[in-house]
């Protein structure tokens, strides 16, 4: 689930065409892909099941094959059992055979934009390159973008673990 604190960044309005174009060039997205990610993650908030926190989160991811997958947070009476929107969207992608993501977008009902939580950052790391953009939209659809490596510095991923073929037999 996305989290918010006093950010060191400022948000750009999604209606600022030159800002969006500049963002897209910097992060390897088309303007259409950016707007589709925005539209989908904002719409996904409406499907959130969050009767306890009342904190709606929507997410959308785009794979390297240009397929989109969406998710929303799903809470549970046993609070730690809930699932964040980002992990729902990524799990959908993975279970459909899309294990390499180009970008992740998340939207909340607060301002400034909220970032993915630590657990989601590590989950994203499994399927997204370190230079992949994480786009965060606030309640007014203003956004900020950080690369995964900025959100999860000094991370480790699957390449840091030994492969199954290099492990001794069990």
From TrEMBL:
InterPro entries: APOBEC/CMP_deaminase_Zn-bd, CMP_dCMP_dom, Cyt/Deoxycyt_deaminase, Cyt_deam_tetra, Cytidine_deaminase-like. It catalyses: 2'-deoxycytidine + H2O + H(+) = 2'-deoxyuridine + NH4(+); cytidine + H2O + H(+) = uridine + NH4(+). One of its GO terms (biological process) is nucleobase-containing small molecule metabolic process. Zn(2+) binds at residues 84, 117, 120. It comes from the Eukaryota. Residues 32-159 form the CMP/dCMP-type deaminase domain. Its EC number is 3.5.4.5. Substrate binds at residues 73-79. Keywords: Hydrolase, Metal-binding, Zinc. GO terms for cellular component: cytosol. The active site is at 86 (proton donor). Gene3D superfamilies: Cytidine Deaminase, domain 2 (3.40.140.10). NCBIfam families: cyt_deam_tetra, PRK05578.1. Belongs to the cytidine and deoxycytidylate deaminase family. This enzyme scavenges exogenous and endogenous cytidine and 2'-deoxycytidine for UMP synthesis. PANTHER family: CYTIDINE DEAMINASE. This is Cytidine deaminase. It comes from Microdochium bolleyi. The lineage of its organism: Eukaryota, Fungi, Dikarya, Ascomycota, Pezizomycotina.
